[in-house]
Amino acid sequence: MEKAKEADGFVFGTPVYFAHPSGQILSFLNRVFYSSAVGELYPVFAGKPGAAIASARRGGTTAAVDVIQKYFGIASMPIVTSTYWNMVHGMTPDEVRKDLEGMQTMRNIGRNMAWMLKCIEAGRATGINPPELEPKV
What we know:
By secondary structure, this protein is α/β, with parallel strands linked by helices. The protein contains 5 helices and 4 strands. 24% of the residues are buried.
């Protein structure tokens, strides 16, 4: 959590097992998002952009990305997108590198994250800060 407090943004990635994110990342996300929200409104994550990416042999990637992005929406995080769904396909790193569209999508999401972080920084420099969240009801 201490590192998360200092972070400007987040990229969470997962392999896809049975058309879903891995159990390890779900366990991590459940713990970190829950523990950051106890008594507060996700102060560690609010206003910080998040990107979700998935890697699979074939299918299930869109469902996996969707599950991860739900954490971002609940925590008031801007969601970083790309030019297609944020995924690559292949069983090995060599196979993934052959997924030209997937590799392009990853480069574009990286550029979009960098752009969003620069926009947030420029906004803060001119006095534009993220909106204040209302206390939980």
